[in-house]
Design goal:
52% of the residues lie in helices and 10% in strands. It has 296 residues and is of the alpha/beta class. The chain has a six-stranded parallel β-sheet, with helices on both faces. Helix 3 crosses helix 4 (107-115) and helix 10 packs antiparallel against helix 13 (254-277).
């Protein structure tokens, strides 16, 4: 039951990848009788479990989770889809007098939910077709030239998102980063917390987590996704899947793939830190939370 919260409160737990936000969100939801809404662009995909760090089975037995395992890995999912579904879940939980706990590191999803979703026009078919002819690296270079702020928020391998942002600029002459700021917030009382670590400590946590994943069968999981959906599926824009696919194809050694995952994840964390740096969100010290046994 919601105790010290207003009826329309939504608790948001965010932070960089590997910061411990999932652990904290689970414990709060369990103690408050709430439910967790996962704000993660990769956890939505079925059969992509290890490299997306989905909740372990014991957590799923203790707390209800929303927006994981909802679509096939070859389908596209975006912030608009997330916000529509998340708001429906939030409204339903409020009717039941339960606390919605939003947890996730996809900053665009969290920000869009809190600040409102922008009115972004669909891509013209001809514009999209022309952009699809270009290599990802060239598209990303163009995006950095035209909209460096949006480029800094997107991983250089996220081809679909790069094409979307660049296509919007070509069609409208307006930067997607600017369009995303023109929003109206939903009628919720957001209480937002961000777990914070010193950068070197965070990077060590990332490296250790990648090592743990490597012992859990990431090759087998990635191989199944490759066989069923192909390397062009959106799931391969997720951290780690492209690198392991390169290992399976013989393009990298396993050690090289693991090091590439660590480097890519650290770079992603750096972009997350930049995104949240100037936003008005209460910071929680990760070291203190760990020392108190609240997160691992």
């Amino acid at each position: 039951m919601i105790q010290d919260f207003q009826d329309n409160t939504v608790l948001v737990i965010t932070g960089a990848t590997a910061s411990g936000k999932a652990s904290l969100a689970h414990k709060i939801a369990r103690e408050c009788g709430g439910e967790v809404i996962v704000a993660d662009s990769m956890k939505v995909y079925r059969n992509a479990d290890i490299l997306t760090s989905k909740p372990p089975p014991e957590h799923l037995k203790e707390v209800r989770y929303h927006l994981i395992d909802i679509i096939e890995p070859d389908r596209w999912y975006d912030a608009g889809s997330f916000c529509r579904t998340a708001r429906s879940v939030i409204d339903n939980l409020h009717r039941k007098n339960k606390l919605p706990v939003v947890a996730g590191g996809t900053a665009l999803y969290v920000t869009s939910l809190m600040e409102g979703i922008a009115d972004i026009p669909p891509l013209d078919e001809e514009v999209e077709k022309n952009l699809e002819l270009e290599p990802t690296g060239e598209l990303y270079r163009q995006l950095k030239d035209q909209d460096p702020e949006r480029a800094s928020e997107i991983h250089p391998n996220m081809r679909k998102r790069i094409i979307r942002a660049l296509g919007v600029f070509i069609q409208t002459g307006k930067k997607m980063s600017e369009l995303l700021k023109k929003t109206s917030p939903p009628p919720y009382n957001f209480a937002a917390l961000r777990i914070s670590w010193e950068r070197e400590e965070l990077y060590s946590r990332i490296n250790r987590r990648v090592d743990r994943m490597c012992s859990m069968g990431i090759e087998k999981e990635t191989e199944k996704l490759l066989e069923k959906y192909g390397r062009g599926a959106p799931v391969f824009e997720g951290l780690g899947y492209g690198e392991i696919a390169s290992y399976i194809k013989g393009e990298l050694s396993f050690e090289e793939a693991v090091e590439a995952i660590k480097k890519t994840t650290r770079n992603y964390a750096r972009r997350q830190l930049t995104w949240w740096r100037n936003r008005d969100i209460i910071k929680l010290d990760g070291r203190k939370l760990k020392a108190a046994g609240i997160i691992s």
